[in-house]
């Protein structure tokens, strides 16, 4: 491998020369930005479909298709007419001989020439292929799938989170692209509004343009220059939520200063995600999706409606979403119930006492967490599994309505996944603090912070299995993927257990 973007950027940061290496630097012309991106290994699909294709939000009779025309991804303004007609087609076969749907959509400059096509009239539980046409060119072919209805014996899906471009290559997404999956879930920190490379903040070299829509667009475009990310989108339909870095670190609320920036960031996110047509600057993310009678997903938005943290009456969900989530719990049927949760739900008390490690997560919203989890316990909901990102390390936790009370019943399991590339703590920090976090948190069963990757969930009526897939080295785009360990939850038996075959795998903490 001749190019390694992590070491290249770290070297430039150490030399005080990030402005010469970081493609989004305000000091660069477009030609220099393109050159800098290429030096970091950026590649693009053939124009105008440089950013690839994607599908998302599969339901039984439809799915959303996405692309964005960006002939010059590093330009602030694309060299395109104000409105460009984009053709789309869906077929049952990769050769498009059995075409089942087709149409056109207008890609407009107002929405960055993105298109979001809500395809309907498809068959449940079926695989499809799709592609786009525009300006005499045809896009790559994407593969997608609709949700099944009725009895389902197995679902396999993956989650990804935290993919700082400057921290490494997306070998994890290459792994996801190769997996046999029904769908993918993204748990947030899809892009980072800034970066920290070798201790130097990239933002200092960029100027204020990161606050604006064109600058957020360029950031998304740069992230999609990693071919493994485009491959993972083209291989499977995705459900997507977000965390803070799609806008700015640890944000909450809507102060006037934040409002304009948030709107720009939300719109750029919308323009680059395979979601249904929506209001670009206030998209509705939270929703319930079903995979037959086997799995109910409650996809949460823990950013858009939250108050500030550490308030007695603070909210992470917002009143409407909280009422909605409680309704999902009350009305839950026999399926596994999974919360797609960007940021850690379980308590993480500081070793040695004195509060919590981070109160940007649910630990900053104690009353609401207790209210919602007490509702879960009282409703008799069984088989709650929460899947989480954000932490850049893997955790497995028992969920209790009152984490401070060991007599409080176990009502579910939280799996927090490794990051795709975003930097974790050092091996020294993990070795020292893993056991301390375990001692301070009786519900914590497992911690591993030295690796990068993604989780694969394999769910049957009787058992939920979480396979922690890890890559060898995020500096290598072709780094091989292996399974670090597997945890199971048996239906009707609260709590998880580790697979015997991998119980001796490396970790910094295990409750024995
Ligand atoms: Fe992150």
Automatic annotation (TrEMBL):
Residues 51-146 form the Phospholipase D N-terminal domain. Gene3D superfamilies: PhoD-like phosphatase (3.60.21.70), Purple acid phosphatase-like, N-terminal (2.60.40.380). The keyword Hydrolase applies. Residues 157-467 form the PhoD-like phosphatase metallophosphatase domain. InterPro entries: Metallo-depent_PP-like (IPR029052), PhoD-like_MPP (IPR018946), PhoD-like_sf (IPR038607), PhoD_N (IPR032093), Phospholipid_Metab_Enz (IPR052900), TAT_signal (IPR006311). The keyword Hydrolase applies. Transmembrane segments: none annotated. One of its GO terms (molecular function) is alkaline phosphatase activity. Its EC number is 3.1.3.1. Keywords: Hydrolase. Residues 502-512 have a biased composition (Polar residues). Residues 473-512 are annotated as: Disordered. Residues 488-501 have a biased composition (Basic and acidic residues). Pfam families: PhoD, PhoD_N. This is Alkaline phosphatase D. It comes from Amycolatopsis umgeniensis.
């Amino acid at each position: 491998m001749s190019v390694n973007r992590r070491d290249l950027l770290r070297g430039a940061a150490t030399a005080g020369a990030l402005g010469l290496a970081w493609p989004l630097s305000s000091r660069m012309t477009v030609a220099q930005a393109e050159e800098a991106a290429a030096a970091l290994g950026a590649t693009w699909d053939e124009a105008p479909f440089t950013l690839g294709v994607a599908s998302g939000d599969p339901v039984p009779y439809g799915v959303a298709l996405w692309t964005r025309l960006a002939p010059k991804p590093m330009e602030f303004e694309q060299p395109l007419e104000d409105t460009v007609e984009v053709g789309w087609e869906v077929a049952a076969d990769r050769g498009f001989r059995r075409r089942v749907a087709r149409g056109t959509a207008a890609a407009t400059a107002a929405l960055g020439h993105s298109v979001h096509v809500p395809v309907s009239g498809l068959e449940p539980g079926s695989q499809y292929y799709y592609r786009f046409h525009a300006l005499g060119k045809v896009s790559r072919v994407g593969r997608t799938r609709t949700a099944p209805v009725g009895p389902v014996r197995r679902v396999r899906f993956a989650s990804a989170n935290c993919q700082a471009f400057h921290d490494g290559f997306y070998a994890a997404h290459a792994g996801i692209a190769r997996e046999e999956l029904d769908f993918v879930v993204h748990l947030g920190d899809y892009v980072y509004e800034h970066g920290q490379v070798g201790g130097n903040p990239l933002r200092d070299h960029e100027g204020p343009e990161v606050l604006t829509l064109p600058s957020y667009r360029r950031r998304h475009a740069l992230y999609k220059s990693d071919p493994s990310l485009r491959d993972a989108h083209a291989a499977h339909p995705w459900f997507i939520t977000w965390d803070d870095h799609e806008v700015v670190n640890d944000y909450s609320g809507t102060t006037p200063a934040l409002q304009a920036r948030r709107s720009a960031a939300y719109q750029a996110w919308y323009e680059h995600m395979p979601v249904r047509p929506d209001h670009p600057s206030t998209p509705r993310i939270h929703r319930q999706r079903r995979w037959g009678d086997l799995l109910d997903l409650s996809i949460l938005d823990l950013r858009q409606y939250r108050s500030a943290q550490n308030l007695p009456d603070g909210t992470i969900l917002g009143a409407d979403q909280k009422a909605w989530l409680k309704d999902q719990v009350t009305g839950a049927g026999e399926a596994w119930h999974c919360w797609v949760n960007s940021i850690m739900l379980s308590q993480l008390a500081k070793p040695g006492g004195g509060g919590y490690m981070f109160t940007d997560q649910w630990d900053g919203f104690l009353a609401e967490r207790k209210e919602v989890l007490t509702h879960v316990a009282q409703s008799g909901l069984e088989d709650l599994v929460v899947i989480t990102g954000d932490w850049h390390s893997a955790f497995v936790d028992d969920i209790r309505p009152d984490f401070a009370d060991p007599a409080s019943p176990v009502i579910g399991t939280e799996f927090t996944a490794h990051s795709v590339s975003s930097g974790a703590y050092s091996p020294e920090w993990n070795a020292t603090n893993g056991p301390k976090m375990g001692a301070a948190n009786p519900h914590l069963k497992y911690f591993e912070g030295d690796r990068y990757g993604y989780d694969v969930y394999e769910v049957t009526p009787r058992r939920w299995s979480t396979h922690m897939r890890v890559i060898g080295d995020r500096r290598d785009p072709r780094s091989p993927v292996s399974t670090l360990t597997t945890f199971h939850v048996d239906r009707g038996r609260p709590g998880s257990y580790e697979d015997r075959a991998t119980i001796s795998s490396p970790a910094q903490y295990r409750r024995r």
